Queue: 2 jobs
Job 1
Amino acid sequence: MKEKPRFIMCNCTGECPGFKDMNFWKLLNFVRNELDSEYAVIHPQLCVDDGDRFLEEVLKPGVTYVIGGCDPRMQKKMFRDPFEKKGIDFDKQVLALDLRNMTTDEAMKKVKEAFEGLSQKT
Ligand code: SF4
C-alpha cells in the first residue's frame, strides 16, 4: 500500500513576522486529523544544523513530503543536503508550500488543496 504523505511545517523559529497570523497548532491538528496525511510535525528552523539532522533522521525514500514554510526555491536550496543524502528527489517527492503572510484559514486551505492534488495523482 502506498504510504500517505507527511506534512512538515517550518516556521522561522515562530518569531518571524511572516507567520504572525498563523496558529500553528490549529494548522497541524487540521492536517493530522482532517487530511489524508501520515502525520504532521513542526520544526522551528529546518535550514540550520539541527534541521539537517532532523531531516536526515526522519526522511524515508519513497515517501512524499508536503513542507510548509518559505519560498519553495529557498526550501529546495536549503534542504538539498539531507534530501540528497537520503536519495530523495526533491522535485519529485516534495511539495514545498510558501505559507508566509497567511492567516491560519488561508494556510489550511492551501495545504488542503495540496493534499487533494496529491491524492488525485495516485
Ligand atoms: S527553511 Fe524557510 S521557513 Fe524554515 S526557518 Fe529557514 S527560512 Fe524559515
Note: Residues 104-121 form the longest helix (18 residues).
Job 2
Amino acid sequence: MSADEMRAIGFHEHGDIDNFELLSVPKPEPGPEEVLVDVKASALNHQDLIAVRELDHYVTEYPFWGGGDTAGVVAEVGERVDDWAVGDRVVVNPAHACGECEFCLQGEQSMCANYEVLGEHRKGGFAEYITVPRTNLYPVPDGYDLQTAAAAPMAAGTAWRALADRAGVRPDDDVLIVGATGGVGTYAVQFATEVLNAETVYGTTSSEEKAEFLRDLGVDHVIDYTEEDFDSRIWELTDGRGVDVVYNNVGGDTWVPSMRSLTHGGRLVLSGATAGPNPTSELRLMFVRQLEIYGSTTHSRTAFETAMGFVFDGSVEPVVQETLPFEEFARAFELMDQRRLYGKVVLTQD
Ligand SMILES: NC(=O)c1ccc[n+]([C@@H]2O[C@H](COP(=O)([O-])OP(=O)(O)OC[C@H]3O[C@@H](n4cnc5c(N)ncnc54)[C@H](OP(=O)(O)O)[C@@H]3O)[C@@H](O)[C@H]2O)c1
Ligand SMILES: [Zn+2]
C-alpha cells in the first residue's frame, strides 16, 4: 500500500454484512479547521448493520465505511487548528452540525437542518485514519485506554440525551429500558441507576444468561420477553401502576407494549427501530393515559461532553464484551447481528 493510501472496512454495494471487506482507499487530508486522527480503536453500532442493509438513500459515495464510535491519536492538524496537537489522545464526536442554523444556535446540534452522523451520512472510524472538524474531538484522560474509550461516544451520548435531556429522568422515576443489553442499552442502564438515580430500573432481554448480566449491571427487575409479555410483567411488578419512563431503542412489536407499560402521564422516549420502523400503535392509550412521546437522536454537543465526562470519571463503565483485531471485522459484525453481544465489540489497530 502506498503512503497516500490506508485500510478501511467498507462496502461497495448495499446488501448484507458479508458485503463488508477490507479495502485500500485514499488517506484523507485535514482541511484548515480539521484534524487527522490515527484511529486506534473503533466500536460497532447497530447503525453499521442498518447502513449496509438499508441506508442507500443516505450514502452518496462508495465505497462507504461506518464506525460512529472512534478513538485514536492526533496525527496532523489543519493550518488553522491551534487547540489540538500531534499526539493528543482523543475520542471523536460522531455528530456533525452546521453551527449556524436555528437549532445549532439553541445548542440542539442533533436537530441541525444539515445534520450528519459518522456511519450514516459520513464515512466513519472503520479506517486507519479519519479527518474531523477540530470541534468534534474530546480528550481522553491519561491512563484511560483508547479501546475502552472507543466504546463510548455515540452509544453513551445517545443514551444520555434520551434519558436526561429528552425524558428528563428524575430520582423518583421508575424506568423501563427496552433493549437493555445492547450498546446504547448498557449505558442507559448505568445512567439511570448510577447518575440519574432512578427509583427502580427495569430492563428487558431475551435469555436467562443475558438477564443475569443485566442484574449484575444494576437492573432491579429483569424481564425475559421470550418467557412472558414484558408489559404484563411490568403491570404485576408495579401493582398495576406502570412505570414513569420507558426508554425504547428497539421499535417494532415492542412499541405498543412500551405504551402499555407506562403510568398516567408517562414518558416514552425512542431512539431506535432495530426491530422495525412501522409498528402498529395504540392511540387510545396515548390520550387516555396522557402519554408523552419523545423522539431522540444522538446528542447535542453539551450532552456528548456530559456523557463522556461520566465515562471518564468512572460514573459509568463501557461494557466491552469483545476486543478484536481490525482484520477480524467479520466476526464482530456476526456477533452483533446474532445478538450475542453484551454492550460493545471493539476493533483495534496498532
Ligand atoms: N437515534 C440515534 O441517534 C441512535 C444512536 C445510536 C443507536 N441508535 C439505534 O438504537 C438501536 C440500538 O443500537 P445499538 O448499537 O445499541 O444496538 P445493539 O448493540 O445491537 O443492541 C440492540 C439490542 O436490542 C435487543 N433487541 C431486541 N429486539 C431486537 C431485534 N428484533 N433485533 C435486534 N436486536 C433486538 C437485543 O438485545 P436482547 O437480545 O437482550 O433483547 C440487542 O442486543 C439501533 O436501532 C440503533 O440504530 C440510534
Ligand atoms: Zn445547524
Note: The domain at 5-151+318-348 is CATH 3.90.180.10 (Quinone Oxidoreductase; Chain A, domain 1).
